[in-house]
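Trying the structure run again after the queue cleared.
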Amino acid sequence: MALATRGVLLERLFPLIQAKRFRGKINIQRPKPVHFERARYVALTQPYFLNPNKDKKPIELCNKYEDKMIEEVDNPFQRIIAEELRNRFNESRLVAFYHVNPMKSDQQFKAQIMFKKENMYFRTYGKKTLKLALENTKYESVLDFYVSQNVTVFSPEPEIKKLLKLTKKFPQLVLLAAIFEGKFINKDEIMELNLIPNLQEAQATLVQTLNSAGSTLTQQLNSHQNTLVSQLQERIKQLEEEK
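Done. Tokens:
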């Protein structure tokens, strides 16, 4: 009884125990080799898998090889689009080719609307559709432009001034080249054609030049007669004053 009472009244002490590793820390990068018996059992229990690429040729390990083995399926709708594209190339008097930098969809839609207002068609086609439409034609060299994101603009009239004016409003569109009246021209030639006035302006300038030349000739032919008439009138006044 006394021992029990003493144990309750006295404060109990619990020693603090801290584990400490013997002989330093474990080297994770260079661990010590395990015991020979353990290493033998570990090697014996490792799973064994057959290599699926065994006895395969290097070309069979390439992913592109499988893509080439896929048979191409004829798409009637794609052939219809290719036929319409070929007709656009034949009927358009001006065809412009653009490289498209990253562009938001709303900006692209805005560009389509603005080109449409000027009677121009802003179109995007895939490389396969272009190949179906332009292969073995005089426009086959156009396929070299389509290596990334590209846009084609078709215009029934050769309105280069309007085309360049719209291009300046969208810096994401980079003009590469064009087909003007059935002839391939580069960007520098497009800028030179932009300096040439259109047919209506040239006709108005020609008419103005012809009219000015005619009026100048008339003035020169009538100048001597007018001078003679004025001199005669002055002489008549002098004779009347002498009387």
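The chain has a mean pLDDT of 81. Worth checking whether this holds up in the mutant runs.
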